[in-house]
Specification:
The protein is α/β, with parallel strands linked by helices. It is about 40% helix and about 15% strand. The longest helix has 27 residues, at about 105-130. The structure holds nicotinamide-adenine-dinucleotide. The site of nicotinamide-adenine-dinucleotide has 28 residues, from helix 1 and helix 4. This is Short-chain dehydrogenase/reductase SDR.
Length: about 260
């Protein structure tokens, strides 16, 4: 296993849900964590609880990603970058009055989930590549992205979200091949339905709960952020794990 004691790490979206759970497990493994998130209140609270630091970061901005990387490197060699910041903005291709979907809304989701992920991972990788190798095998660090089962099981109204997560899946292999040369492993975890604040309230939350019936677990239930964090930690600490897309959905299959 990769030893994270004395290292630093970045978790985008670390203020909530899956990212928060991953940040807690990274800290427990001895890494100093930068919570890089837009949510200042929740992010600062989590960072204080785990002995890390909060950096207000919009993943779509290069200067914010640089600030997160800088804060991490100041605490120790950067060994892990978890890209959990993400969101959805559901909407049908044409609405009830047959008007087309707003292009700005579509672009917003792609910008945060796909381009934001590439922005942070490329800047984290640049810092990792400049560091001394950590293990006898010459590895320098690990990157873990969050995709979604929506990359494979598209639901009505989720075109932008599915496209963004399909993009994250699609870029995993080329980036892993690219960064292998400098000892950085890249993996993606694709969650099913996880009990986090991402679904908010209202119509979207109702849609989410309706899918619970597809659970094949007994008793039927949603996944927990902590259970996703186990897989994220495996991607980081298992030196043979590379270029994987791990679907972690409790066996759920949406119709
Ligand atoms: P969450 O809403 O609990 O947390 C997401 C965090 O990302 C929030 O703290 C939010 O402030 C932050 N964020 C949003 N936009 C940002 C931006 N531009 N810059 C920085 N931070 C930003 O969500 P979650 O359920 O923990 O989801 C984590 C990841 O897993 C997301 O990428 C999501 O798409 C993916 N995912 C979640 C589920 C699920 O069922 N919860 C399923 C599949 C995939």
């Amino acid at each position: 296993r990769v030893n994270l004691e004395g290292s630093s790490s970045i978790v985008t979206g670390g203020a909530s849900g899956i990212g928060e759970a991953a940040a807690r497990q990274l800290a427990a493994a001895g890494s100093k964590v930068v919570i890089a998130d837009l949510n200042e209140e929740k992010g600062a609270k989590v960072a204080a609880e785990i002995g890390g630091v909060f950096v207000k970061c919009d993943v779509t901005k290069t200067e914010d990603a640089d600030a997160a990387v800088e804060a991490a490197v100041a605490m120790g060699p950067l060994r892990a970058c978890v890209n959990s910041a993400g969101l959805g903005a559901p909407g049908r291709t044409i609405d009830r009055d047959n008007n087309p979907h707003d292009l700005g809304r579509f672009a917003f989701v792609i910008n945060v989930n796909l381009i934001g992920t590439f922005n942070v991972l490329s800047r984290a990788a640049a810092a990792m590549a400049k560091q001394e190798p950590m293990d006898a095998d010459g590895s320098r660090g690990a990157i873990v992205n969050l995709a979604s089962c929506a990359a494979f099981d598209g639901q009505i109204g989720q075109a932008a979200y599915s496209a963004s997560k399909g993009g994250v899946v699609g870029m995993t292999l080329p980036i892993a091949r690219d960064l292998s040369a400098v000892g950085i492993r890249v993996n993606t975890v694709a969650p099913g339905l996880i009990d986090t604040p991402i679904y908010g309230e209202g119509e979207h939350a109702e849609q989410f709960k309706a899918h619970l019936g597809q659970s094949v677990l007994f008793p039927k239930r949603l996944g927990q952020g902590e259970e996703l964090a186990f897989a994220i930690m495996d991607c980081i600490t298992n030196p043979y794990m590379n270029a994987e897309v791990i679907r972690l959905d409790g066996g759920i299959r949406m119709p």
